[in-house]
Structures are given as structure tokens and as C-alpha cells.
Amino acid sequence: MKALLQRVSRAAVSIDGNTIGEISRGLVVLVGIADVDTEKDIEYLVPKIVNLRIFEDNESKFNLSILDVKGDLLIVSQFTLMADTRKGRRPSFTDAAPPERAEKLFEKFVAVAKETGLKVAVGRFQAHMLVDIQNNGPVTIMLDSRDKLPSP
């Protein structure tokens, strides 16, 4: 499972000109779900995201998490994060989870994120959306659950 984080001053997601979710200061989390992903990947990524110190303190150092600054989350499913571009000119998405399975894992990801107590806005799964992102910094960080340390 991949999560592309963008630290934002504000962000919104809309469908057909209608805003379905918006946040102020916080993180946009674009989520790509692989065929091999399970709830264990969510259990790794959500705590990593909300505890990652990528907000500046009074000395302009990355010492604060989204929990510390009481920021918001905008979570959007984005299967294109699973693109394999190693061969040819057209991306392959064979590693992406099938939609039915991906949607269940995405919904679980959102539910676990909501358990943190942060305000959570969400895009619509498999919809064509416009995501308006005011990246602050810019700060953009890729997390991949496959990078987690092996269990002891």
C-alpha cells in the first residue's frame, strides 16, 4: 500500500463541480492499494502518517505531527500510485488490487484514520474527481507499507 502525503494549507475534492470534501491545514493522503495488501498494511500506514513529524515548530524544524497541530486529513483513493513504468511507455496496473477488494481496504483505511480523532474528509472511490491542493512548502512524502521493518 502506498500513501503519497502532501502537507497543505487547504485542499478540496469535487465531482461534477460539487465539493464533496474539504480541509484546511493538514494532509492530503493519496492512497494506492496493491493486490497483496491487507489490513496489516493499514495498521502500519495510518499510525505512521498521523505521527510523522512534517509540520514545523517555532524554530522552523519538522518536529510536529498532524496530531500535534490538530490538522485535517483529506483521503483520496488513487490506484495510479500502483503504476509500473519499468517497461514500455504505457503504465501497467497489474499490481493494483481489483476494485471490489481495494474499495473495502480503502474504507477500512478511512475508518482507522477517523479513529485518530482528526477531521477526515474523503474522495469518492472510483469517481473522476478534481482535487484542489494548496501544497504548503511544498512538502510531499511517499510512504510504502512494503518499507516497514520485518517483525521480530
Task: Tell me what you see in this structure.
- The chain contains 3 helices and 8 strands.
- With 152 residues, it is α/β, with parallel strands linked by helices.
- The chain has one domain (2-147): D-tyrosyl-tRNA(Tyr) deacylase (D-tyrosyl-trna(Tyr) Deacylase, Chain: A, 3-Layer(bba) Sandwich), CATH 3.50.80.10.
- Strands 1, 2, 3, 6, 7 and 8 form a 6-stranded mixed beta sheet that branches. The protein has a two-stranded antiparallel sheet with strand order 4-5.
- Strand 4 and strand 5 (62-64) form a beta hairpin.
- Helix 1 (39-51) packs across helix 3 (99-114).
- The radius of gyration is 15 Å and the shape is globular.
- The mean pLDDT is 96.
For CATH, the homologous superfamily is named as D-tyrosyl-tRNA(Tyr) deacylase
Number of helices, where a helix is a run of at least 4 consecutive DSSP H or I residues: 3
- Per CATH, the architecture is 3-Layer(bba) Sandwich
Protein structure class: alpha/beta
Number of E-type strands: 8
Helix content: 10-25%
CATH topology, anyone? D-tyrosyl-trna(Tyr) Deacylase, Chain: A
Largest sheet: 6 strands, mixed
The global form is globular
Total number of distinct structural domains: 1
Mean pLDDT: 96
Ranges where pLDDT stays below 50 over 5 or more residues in a row are: none
Measured distance between first and last alpha carbons: 21 Å
Portion in beta strands: 35-45%
Rg value: 15 Å
